Amino acid sequence: MSHFDTLIVGGGAAGLLCAITAGRRGKRVLVVEHANRCGKKILMSGGGRCNFTNIHATPANYLSANPHFCKSALARYTPYHFIEMVERHGIAYHEKELGQLFCDDSSKQIVKMLLDECSAASVRVETSCSIERVSHGESDEDRFRLHTTRGSFSAPSLVVASGGLSIPSMGATGFGYELARQFGHAVLPTRAGLVPLTLSGKHQEPFADLSGVALPVTARCNGTSFSNYFLITHRGISGPSILQISSFWQPGDDLRLDLLPGRDALEALQQWQRDRPAAELKTVLGDVLPKRFAQRLCEHWLPNRPMKQFNGPQLREIAQVIGDFALVASGTEGYRTAEVTLGGVDADELSSSTMQSKRMPGLYFIGEVVDVTGWLGGYNFQWAWASGNAAGNAV
User: Which of 205, 215, 218, 281 is in the most buried spot, having the most CB atoms within 10 Å?
Assistant: First the structure.
């Protein structure tokens, strides 16, 4: 049995930052990762360039059954704390849009930075190390024990940073939830978040041959809206606006799109009627929307004739469709392509300042395994860094 001060289950974003923080404090830390390398989701994120934080991150950008839970950790470890480390390692980065920071070169630089920091803090990292059993008590009552394919390890502190169910091809499992239940924790229902939506039957048919068509929209669901691109796919709809709204949508919920975001559709139609009375509706719409999409609108949802032939009430009906376009999604693409997992370990049973269990002293949960889910655009990485830092300073 090898003894440490802290055992960390999971070598992803949260686990590695927790290890660095604890290691810098002189703690003997072991990170156990079941995959053959650490940070696989970091490597594939942001199209391989890692959207490693968002400079606008606030608690308002996170979903949780306890919306106040994330406040403490986020306040004590801001995007600028992580940026300082990135700059210290000479990693070039840029802001893409809406506060999203990406590496200029490769996400490999972020993983290397984290592993180099672990090495500098004398953190031991074991990859390809599967956990067979976790126990607590027994002969040494204050220690947690990990029984693994690489031997047995013990420590008075155990940090669970094993992630959620998203992207199982990257090695995601429900292990963290099983561990939480083992020690008496409630796990709130999980579902895929930041995920493409599927369409089926008559709701999918009009879009069947439009795969690849994209346009800016404002997507609305359950009182929340996001303005960004909308993309038609072979199986349904995607793009940043849909990925964002998917975290707020569940089957049966009303989903609407404003196809002319930032404009008053009725005013635009009236202006086109004055300026181009002989032009057909599909033609004027084709100048502001992708032509194929505009044509399909006028085949399935809107009447197509010269603008001068529409009266006032008819223009208002057209404006209503354009500004409040109804979509009926049948489901999501599921965990296979979801960027995050909604739900997870009940935050009410954790300390918001340390991430420590209120049920089992020495047990901590951080990152995606907890019921805290960020918006698209670097927010989930910021939660990983912030929660990892909180636990790393407490173990």
Answer: 281
Q: Is the dihedral of CA 293, 299, 301, 304 positive or negative?
A: positive
Quick count: other Cβ atoms within 10 Å of Cβ 170? 13
Handedness of CA 353, 356, 362, 364 (dihedral sign): negative
Which long-range contacts link 290-296 to residues 24+ away (Cβ below 8 Å)?
A: 290/213, 290/214, 290/215, 292/210, 292/213, 293/210, 293/213, 293/215, 293/232, 296/206, 296/207, 296/210
Token pair, residue 48, equals 């391989």
Residue where the block lists tokens 């500004």: 323
What's the CA gap between 388 and 385, in Å, rounded?
Answer: 5
| Fold topology of 2-191+341-392 | FAD/NAD(P)-binding domain (3.50.50)
Give the CATH number of domain 197-332: 2.40.30.10
Q: Where are the beta strands (DSSP E) in 10-111?
A: 29-32, 51-54, 62-63, 93-95, 100-103
22-33 pLDDT, tens digit each: 999 999 999 999
* Angstrom distance (rounded) from CA 389 to CA 74: 10
Neighbours of 14 (CB within 10 A): 34
- Sheet containing 151-155: which strands, arranged edge to edge? 2-3, 151-155, 140-148, 131-137
Query: Are 228 and 216 spatial neighbours (Cβ–Cβ below 8 Å)?
Result: yes
Distances (CA, A) of 77 to 8, 102, 122, 391: 20, 19, 22, 11
Map tokens 């008590």 to a residue: 137
Using one digit for the tens of pLDDT, what is the confidence trace for 346-387? Answer: 999 999 999 999 999 999 999 999 999 999 999 999 999 999
